[in-house]
Amino acid sequence: MSPDPAPSRLAAAAPDLYGAVDVGSHTIRVLVAACDAEGTFRPTHHERHVTRLAQGFSRQGSLTDEAAARALTVVRQVAARLRAFPLRALRCGATGVVRKAANGADFIQRIRDATGWPVSILSEEQEALLSLRGMVSVLEPPEGPLVCFDLGGSSTEFSLVDWETRSPLWLGSVFVGAATLTEAFLGDAPVSTERLRKAADHARRILRPAVESIRTSLQGRPRCGDKLTLAGTAGTVTTLAAMDARMAHYVPYRINNRILTKTWVAETVRSLGATSLEARRRIVGLEPGREDIILGGAVIVEQILESFDVPHLRVTDAGLLEGLLLDGARAAGSETAPGEPTWRFSRELEETR
C-alpha cells in the first residue's frame, strides 16, 4: 500500500514520537505513534508492504536474492520517509524466516548499511514477548486462561498469559506459517482435497508440542478449569477478520476484539481451497498480495482452534509491531506505566489495504 499522506505535517504536530518497523516473512509494517504526558499513544502513520521475503526459502534454507532485493527496496523507501519524523526512538525487528535463514545475519547488516536503523533479529522468545505486549494493550479482559498466538509468514508464536500481571506463564514458537505452509503444500489454486488434508496434518503435527506444553502449564493453576480464551494476531488472522466483516476499507482498530468462530473458519478453509487466485482477489476484505497464502494461514488457524478445542478466537490488529513500538518507548523513558499503555485511535488513519 502507499504511505499515509503528508508525514511532515503529522510530525510537526506531534513532537514526542516513537517508531517501529516489523520486517516480517511476508510483509514489512511500519508504525509511528505519539505519546502524550499521560502515557496515551496515538498512531499517526501506518505503512504495510508485501515483500514475500520467505518466497523460495523452503527450497534452499536461505533468503533468495530476489526476495532480499524486494525487501531492501522497501526498507530504503521507508527509511527516507521516516526521516521526516523527529522520532525519539525507533525499534526495528526481523522475525521467523530471517531468524532461520543461513544468510539472515547478512541480510540484517545490509538493512543497517542502507538505513542506519538499529535493526536486530528477534529470538523466538523476544518475538513472542513483544507480540504479547502489543496484544494485551488492546485485548478485553478474558473470561479464563488466556492463550495468545501470532501467526506470521513462517512461524507462529504462542504465549500463555497471566492477565492480572499481563505477563507470560509460558512462551514458545513453532516454525510453521502462512507462507511456508503454502509453499510446501498449497501452491495450486484451487487445491486438491488431498493436498489440503496433508497441509492440515502437517500443521497439526508442528503445532502439537506447543499445544501440549501450554496444556501442561495450565494444570494445577488457579482457574485452570475455566473456559480458555484464545486470541490471535498478524496478517492471516486480521485478514480473516476483515473478510468476515466484509471490510472493503481496512480499519485496524475496528479489528481489535472481533470474534471468529471455528465454524466460520472451517467453512472459509473449504471455500478458499476450492477457489482460484483470481476469484480470491475479488473477496471483500482479503488484502491484495495475500490471496496466495491466505489458505495456508487459515488452515493453521483452523488447526489451532481444533487443537485447543475452543469454539472461537478473539482477533487483535495490535501485535508485534505495537509491541516493538511500546518497547522502544519504554527503553527511551516514556512515562507510560509498564505493561499498561492506552491507545487513542483516529478515523484520520483508517488504513486502505
UniProtKB/TrEMBL annotation:
Q: Which residue range or ranges hold the Ppx/GppA phosphatase N-terminal domain?
A: 37-327
Highest taxon above the source species: Bacteria
Q: According to the UniProt record, where is the region Disordered? A: 333-353
Fetch the Gene3D superfamilies from UniProt: 3.30.420.40, Exopolyphosphatase. Domain 2
> What are the recorded GO MF terms, alphabetically?
pyrophosphatase activity
Which InterPro entries is this protein grouped with? ATPase_NBD (IPR043129), GppA/Ppx_hydrolase (IPR050273), Ppx_GppA_N (IPR003695)
Q: What is the protein name stated in its UniProt record? A: Ppx/GppA phosphatase N-terminal domain-containing protein
Q: Which organism is it from?
A: Desulfacinum infernum
